[in-house]
Amino acid sequence: MTPTSQTYIGTDGFERIVIQNAYLRCVYMPGLGGKIASIVDVRTNREWLWRHPRMAYAIVPSTASYVATADTGGWDECFPTVGACQYPADPWLGAYLADHGELWCQTPQTTVETVDSGVQITTVWQGINLPYTFERQLRVDMSNQMTLNYTVTNQGAAPMHWIWCAHPLMAIEPGMGVHTPEGTTFFRQDAQGNLIPEPADAIRPSATQTLDLRVLPERTSGYGVKLYSDVLPKGWVSLRADNGSLSMDWDVADVPQLAIWFNAGAWSADGGTPYYNMGIEPAIGVYDPLSDAYTKTSTYATLAPGQHRCWQVRVRIDADTKGA
Question: Would 308 be classed as within a structural domain?
């Protein structure tokens, strides 16, 4: 089935672009920073992306807290930082970089076109406090796969440092499992902010808790942890349910790391019932603030003036993978 696209305005006033084929349905919201609001397997009607049960969609400034005002769910892009910080080097030393980056708070340039046997949405953002162009091409063809092609270009006259991660918040349930390449090592931060290495099947959110991501615990378990991988043996991750899976893969030479945010009843930003969700995030760089990545690691990226960098992430939706 050749994918189709349609555009409509929701009751909340925000435009939605819907792409659908025989396998999946994707909803894109240009007015909310190019958010991918929904990815549904049309064969099972499983929604793979989490939606905040209480937070309404709204346009907020880049100076606002993302988690307090815009953590509505779906898939955002975090660039050139994840955590709010000041840029750590000349000539933009001290420039403010927003919580979860500078992309989610914009209304980017959006183009929708039919390409061969697919539909492609091209989204282009411009830097707010740094001189860059960030572009993402989201393509759906006749298969069960979405392809995301990224390009970032330094438009300035000096080298620019940055980190990036995709930020899809996943709709999870007890018993689902996250699978990563054999030999994956994750790091978590201790109370002093130091990175502690741990195997993927024995993560310690605290001194008294042990977490194996291959079998997700109950909603009220109280686990809450942010993980950053070492350079991965291979570039892939898979979230598996009893009737399907969502998998991502990429070239590990382009995207070396994977970040995971797991919240099983540990926390909510609005004081309501704590969330039960998970961020599964292909990443370039370790630590959330660019300033920490720059001062404490060598995992951040740098672009010379006029230079660009490209990478690709493929998202595959499989149905009925029970027992895989």
Answer: yes
Query: Residues 227, 178, 254, 150: is their CA dihedral positive or negative?
Result: negative
| DSSP class of 49 | B
Check: CB of residue 148 under 8 Å from CB of residue 312.
Answer: yes
pLDDT at residue 204, rounded to an integer: 82
pTM of the model: 0.95
Domain span at 305: 4-173+269-319
First to last CA, the chain: 27
Q: How many CB atoms lie within 10 A of CB 69?
A: 17
> From residue 223, how far is each of 100, 265, 285, 312 by CA, in Å?
22, 7, 24, 31
Distance, CA of 299 to CA of 117 (rounded, Å): 38
Q: Is the pLDDT of residue 321 over 80?
A: no
Note the pLDDT tens digit of each residue in 242-272. Answer: 999 999 999 999 999 999 999 999 999 988 9
Q: Classify 18 in phi/psi space as left (phi over 0), alpha (psi -120 to 50) or beta.
A: beta
Quote the number of domains for the chain. Answer: 1
Residues 159, 137: Cα–Cα separation, whole Å: 25
CA geometry: angle 146, 147, 153, nearest 5 deg: 145
Is residue 258 a part of any domain in this protein? no
Beta bridge partners of 214: none
Pairing of strands 132-140, 118-126: antiparallel
Read out DSSP for 271-313?
SSSPPEEEEEEEEESSSSBHHHHHHH-S-SEEE-TT-EEEEEE
Question: How do residues 144-154 score in pLDDT, each as one tens digit?
Answer: 999 999 999 99
**Rounded to an integer, what distance in angstroms lies between the CA atom of residue 186 and that of residue 202?**
10
CATH number for the domain harbouring residue 68: 2.70.98.10
Upper half-sphere CA count for residue 187 (Cβ side, 13 Å): 17
- Among 156, 119, 155, 151, CA closest to 135: 151
